[in-house]
Amino acid sequence: MRRHTLCALALTLAGTTLMPAQVSDYKKLEYPPLRPFTIPQPERIVLPNGMVVMLLEDRELPLIEATAIVRTGSRHEPAGKIGLGQIFGQTWRTGGTRTMTGDQVDDFLEARAAEIETGITSEQGIVGLSCMAADFPAVLKVYVDILRNPVFDEAKIKLAKNQVNTGISRRNDNPIGILNREFTRLLYGADSPYGWLTEYSTVEKITRDDLVAWHGKYVHPNRIILGLTGDFSAKEMAATIKSTFGAWPKGPEFKDPVPAYQAETKPGVFYIQKEDMTQSNVILGHLGILRDNPDFFSVEVMNEVYGGGFGARLFSNVRSRKGLAYTVRGRIGANFDYPGAFTTFLYTKTETTAAGIDALMEEITGLSSNPPSEQEVRRAKDSILNSFVFNFDSKEEILDQQLTYEYYGFPRDYLARYRDNIDKVTTQDVVRVAQKYINKDRLILLVVGPSKGQDRPLESFGKVAKLDITIPEPGGAAAPVASADSVTKGRSLFGKVVQALGGPAAVDSVKSLRTVASNTVRTPQGELNVKVVSILSLPDRVRQELTTPMGQMVNVVAGQEGFMSTPQGVRPLPDSRRTDTLKTINRQSVVMALHRDDPEFKIQHLGTETVDGVPLEALLVSWKGDDVKLFVDPATSRIIRQAFRSSGPAGPGDAVTVFSDFRQTGGLTLPFKAETTLNGEPVQSATIEEIVINPAVDDSLFVQPAGS
Fold first, then answer.
1. Residue 270 and residue 347: Cα distance in Å, rounded?
2. What does pTM read for this prediction?
3. Which of 521, 553, 534 is nearest to 674 (CA)?
4. In the chain, N or C: fewer CB atoms in 10 Å?
């Protein structure tokens, strides 16, 4: 008992001696200085062929990680083949090697819970490896094979192109992605590699020969920095790497060209209209600095004062005090070999767009008119220094930083000197760099959001340039020039089509349609059965109620507006979906027939074409920004086939819809079956169960529910 009492007393006294003295104000608390933090240095080796190798032991787990950084990057793509780097990076691994197909590589790695991944960023190529230490010798052989002997299988190239095209088709769905992308183009220039956009047309031009040539130009040992960390002896691993890579011949020496960019920011006010949003995304900024700028560390502290976190000026003033932002951030960016960007951005309600911009401008100006205080700078430095160790709390993170510094020619002790350089920053330094590197007269202002509901016109900030973010379609054959004879024949034949539908009087009486259909949609994951109840209220309103295996969904388009309802809630319909829906409406035979006398409804006869052994009369209709080719059965004057451009999971392609099972309903003769293909592959089939002509339509069906 006495022993337990003495132990308890000792613990109590020990705890008492460790507690700080009682203070009445938390600001008066004193803390001991940070203990020294020693950052381990990897062993650096240079092979005779020029490959730089960095080794860092980490015996905590029986794992080995490897990263090869290759001196290349998508910024070196030819201007006409933008996307080459992305497709190269993907098929470098998935396309297999001379000894293993990509699928065989997958099976080999899966059996060992290992990974080998490849990719190309704007500034470098990456080949990564992760595996159990016991499997490293076998996995290393495959790693080297992929690094040196890729074959870029054509089927994998096609798959990669489809995936890139999918990204292109969806790039305007994400407002934040639009904001960052278009600001980058305004900042560096649309003609700069940093502002280039991958388009369908540039992807289409990329060939396997381009990928082989890229590999032959850039992937050589003297252009590679290889880093390894994990459960190994550095001495033994050095011997392994030398024996594995030592015989790889050195490649040609050349210096990569410096990519061009705008050296001076062109200020202005820019707007992107996106109606499927309920907020405005705003960014202000201009060019930033380089990482080797002597003022970099002072800028880092200034960034923390300005927009670093909950205690920073932007968050405290714009979000917390004024309540004008869901998210607000700002900083001067610093890249390694081209300038970063000074950016200040927020996401705010549409009705506080101008107020939000005013608040950002006030904070930008305030960095000079209301310079940071000693207390603000001390807090910022403490925040950086106290969190520093957590940024490099693993050997892998430390090695990644060292590889980056090696790649860009920075000193090896740059990371170790980081804390000392931050600690040396003074309040005067922060005030000076804020005044030196932030210039409100050079600002680009970009707003992405809906056109209605703003508290003040954007013109109050200057002349507004509206940016067009329409995704260009792939280049294709131009529509033939319509001759007077082809137009006359086309209108005559289309008149017969109208007659076959039920006649002008029956067609002109149509104001609305209700259709019930069973659809089978083919997806990469398999077939999906969807029941669709569609209510069309002419000229441009449609409501689609879908019963799917995932639950009930509703899509509504009402002219320039639209919304969708899913089990997850109600939100605006993406602009791309709304546009596609309106095009689908306008391709319906009844809708085209209703507009036959519209001056903008252009039609011409293309002659007779044989399809599946059957001669059909071909018409080309150009209307509402869409071209659709109609194939008319000369015996019945019915449209039994349509060809048009459409979008699928892999982007736009050539779609064909074949109609059959024509029946009379409500005075019209309409198809009750439709089969659609995209680029020759089946994508959807529809069986119509019911068509009602001119049903009563409730206008509230096309109104987004209040509060959603």
1. 16
2. 0.80
3. 521
4. N
